[in-house]
Amino acid sequence: NMSEQKTNKEQRYDRQLRLWGDHGQEALENAHTCLLNASATGTEILKNLILPGIGAFTIVDGHKVTGEDVGNKAQAATEFLQELNSDVSGNFVEESPDKLLDNDPEFFHRFSLVIGVQLPESTCQRLGAVLWSAGVPFLVCRTYGLVGYMRLVVKEHTVVESHPDNALEDLRLDQPFTELRNHISSYHLDSMDKKHNCQLPKNYKEKEVFRQLIRDGIRKNENGAPEEEENFDEAIKNVNTALNPTKISSTVDDIFNCVQCENITSQTSAFWMMARGVRDFVQNEGNGSLPVRGTIPDMIADSDKFINLQNVYREKALQDAAVVSKHIQSHLQAVGKVINTNKIQFLHCAAFLRVVRCRSLAEEYSTDTFQKDTITSCMDSPDSEMVLYLMLRSVDRFYQQHSRYPGVYNYQVEEDISKLKLCVNSLLQEHGLSVNVKDDYVHEFCRYGAAEPHTVASFLGGAAAQEAIKLITHQFVPFNNTFIYNAMSQTSATFQL
Q1: Is the model's pLDDT at 347 over the cut of 90?
Q2: Which residues of 384-417 are buried (b: 16+ CB within 10 A; e: fewer)?
Q3: Per-residue confidence at 86, pLDDT binned at 50, 70, 90?
């Protein structure tokens, strides 16, 4: 029975449905994620994707499990993870990522997202190039001692519902549309002051005067004391947020000016088709404003008046949506294309659209295009998380030269310190970086011995799964493009590298 299944699902996923809704959940259930390496970090990430109900996962891992339970690691992890959620389909490939890249690079094209964990730098770069050209998002994750690292590699990621924390309402009090103006003039508030020049109060002083105007409107009792009027108090409190000018944010404006928004072809995605429809509306019927969002905040009022006001906004939003739809339809017809999308959802979020474009790994690793200035300015404070990035790059260099990470054998820790120091110096030299990496960090990274402590893996597993869900649902804004977690100081930072 379909409806029974639906209620079971609603009960089971109740909390997360409040975050990303049915459509977000559907996107999650249609996704297929590939995990390279079932290490502690890898299995933590998958656990956090399987519990909320990702559609399918495939683990690629050629390592053998050591000890009594000899067998393939990918298979063992798949079987245990599968037990967490029977709705999820689990697969495994007993192959090292490098072998797969040699024999069947197309294998990776089928996934919604590829997550690479604890990969050597060379594998990471090869895989990064394959996924970049195929347009598949790639999330690199790594736990190295007490350091967590993530790098997102995605050419273009569009977000409709960015869920900003402190979004202002779309009330248009400064530019009331005709229906709103008529609705408000049907309330005979004592004849308004004529001296005002129709400008919104802008600064603190003007807003104070405006608040006083509202206070003066409160009825007085027979002793001349103001009555308890909750709706007036509420209005005074909201002067700051409700009187925001109706304007388009620079982020959305940049999206409208994108070449993808300009040149519509049969290859244009639904996001850009709709963005173009909204842009056409702004430039024509909207007179420079976005379509009306159509929602108003809860407020103290009698039900009838509130519902009438709500309907004024809602009907205007539907009118605007119909106009935008016409624009979209004309573009679709011109290029002979059909899209099934939730236009209402898109228009409701038009003010919060986001596009995330990351740099490729090739750009980050090339000495011509790496972010020299970013690194140099961060390293002005020698304990910036940036130093951990430089150290990770240095241990990768060590691995290339010695086919092992520094400090993995206790008896070599001392001699590895000087070898790692050479790697740090050559990295800085080749990139022309005149920054200082403290010896403490070199010692610390040798002491780590490339260990993967579960506490750090578990924290990173939560963070990475969260980013994965953002990418899959196209909701909330993923970081761009490097995240570093320092478990020694309990700090984290993001950088664009």
Answers
A1: no
A2: bbbbbbbbbbbbbbbbeeeeebbbeeeebeeebb
A3: confident
Q: Is the pLDDT of residue 397 over 90?
A: yes
Complete domains list, the chain, with CATH: 2-158+453-495 (3.40.50.720), 178-242 (no CATH), 250-355 (no CATH), 362-448 (no CATH)
pLDDT of 193 reads 47
Average predicted confidence (pLDDT) for the chain = 88
pLDDT tens-place string over residues 453-464: 999 999 999 999
134, 139, 156: which is closest to 353 by C-alpha? 156
Q: How far is CA 198 from CA 22, 176, 235, 452, in A?
A: 43, 12, 19, 64
Query: How far is the CA of 98 from the CAs of 239, 346, 490, in angstroms?
Result: 60, 41, 34
Q: What is the rounded radius of gyration, in angstroms, for the C-alpha atoms of the chain? A: 28
Terminal Cα distance for the chain, rounded: 51
Decide if 33 contacts 116 (C-beta within 8 A).
Answer: no
Does the pLDDT of residue 423 top 60, yes or no? Answer: yes
Q: Match 């690479």 to its residue by tokens.
A: 116
What are the tens digits of pLDDT across the range 176-207? 999 999 988 887 655 444 444 556 777 778 77
Full 3-state SS string of the chain:
CHHHHHHHHHHHCHHHHHHHHHHHHHHHHCCEEEEECCCHHHHHHHHHHHCCCCCEEEEECCCEECCCCCEEHHHHHHHHHHCCCCCCEEEEECCCHHHHHHHCHHHHHHCCEEEEECCCHHHHHHHHHHHHHHCCCEEEEEEECCEEEEEEECCCEEECECCCCCCCCCCCCCCCCHHHHHHHHCCCCCCCCCCCCCCCCCCHHHHHHHHHHHHHCCCECCCCCECCCHHHHHHHHCHHHHCCCCCCCHHHHHHHCCHHHHCCCCCCCHHHHHHHHHHHHHHCCCCCCCCCCCCCCCCCCCHHHHHHHHHHHHHHHHHHHHHHHHHHHHHHHHHCCCCCCCHHHHHHCHHHCEEECCCCHHHHHCCCCCCHHHHHHHCCCCCCCHHHHHHHHHHHHHHHHHCCCCCCCHHHHHHHHHHHHHHHHHHHHHCCCCCCCCHHHHHHHHHHCCCCCHHHHHHHHHHHHHHHHHHHHCECCCCCCEEEEECCCCEEEEECC
What does the pLDDT read at residue 192? 45
Give me the mean pLDDT over the 269-287 stretch: 92
The pair of structure tokens assigned to 13 is: 């996923």
State the Cα torsion 231-234-235-237 to the nearest 10°. 160
Nearest of 418, 398, 468 to residue 55 by alpha carbon? 468
